[in-house]
Amino acid sequence: MFSRFQTYIPTAALAFLIFYFGFHALTGDRGLLLSRQRRETYAEKQDELRRLRAERADLEARARFLRDDNLSADLLEERAHVLLGFVDPRDYVIRLTPGRG
Length: 101
Description:
mainly alpha, about 65% helix
């Protein structure tokens, strides 16, 4: 009886392999059904990269003005206001309630 099915074993194995690889080609991590999701994720990451590059350029420009050889008094004063809470006695301070703008 086993000899009768022995001729179908290579065909069944090949069919199983075709099914297995076909299934994973459609539904796997890099499958055809997830290509749209990958494109959307790629677009989101590109937007995030653009935003981070712009933020980095801004921070580099601000850091350049805080170096000893090129110190900007205005930027230094602004950082002192923000970090230390120091204000010039001639400045007007308008306090806002958090959450109201």
